[in-house]
């Protein structure tokens, strides 16, 4: 940066500093501004205003009370609107247990009643010999610390921490990571809780098989067939790709209960799609899903349960503490990279 540019920036900073009020405007000044903008000032009017101020307190507090009352009335109106309100994650979790298919969350200490899920957990905890890149781990850890210290938004966590982390775990494998923050799930694959209404939860990132590395396989599977999709998402690009693990990311102050609900509903949609395409009685392989709330990463394994020829239940097992990861230091980031690497190896293996 040149000396001239530096002086210009410093001058601008000083101007900004001078423009920021040191103390809040006093009540008398606020009253004068109100007088000038409303009614003429007369002795009677002045007396009335002073009496109102003494009885009602600080004008600024009165304004705040009005805002709070307005917000409350809007909240009441939104509640009275029935389905227009956003239910709590705990309520949604309870309702999902009665949805179609049922979405059941299983504590890690419970039996998932799936040999494949138990075997997958054992695989993901077994060292595969992957040599993580220390420079990548340090870069991710530094970005994570900055996001946490500066209270950055969810978008920063997605692009500065999660995406480099997934790409570092993929390395040379024929996989790719895509952002699906705005991509919806096809309604026919969403869990249904009435004949009319479905649950739809979006996630942030997903890992899948890119076309350039799997072109022959995609061609044989009918990539260019009109209306043919390879997953449960309605997008001209992502919908045409085979998907593996999905990740729901939240900032450090994100809702710890909401994240597993979102990833669970998304994985249910993918299992429903896979079940609909199944041409044999072979069980579907388990899915892996992740949630990242700030620096803490949690892992879940989803399995489908068949009944009378339909997918009657999806079990979300986790979070699994044996797989927990953090990006708080280079050491912990390297450990998380190794866990994610095993998830990537499982993805191409299945």
From TrEMBL:
Pfam families: PDDEXK_12. Residues 131-347 form the PD-(D/E)XK nuclease-like domain. It comes from the Eukaryota. This is PD-(D/E)XK nuclease-like domain-containing protein. InterPro entries: PDDEXK_12 (IPR046797). Residues 35-44 have a biased composition (Polar residues). Residues 22-61 are annotated as: Disordered.
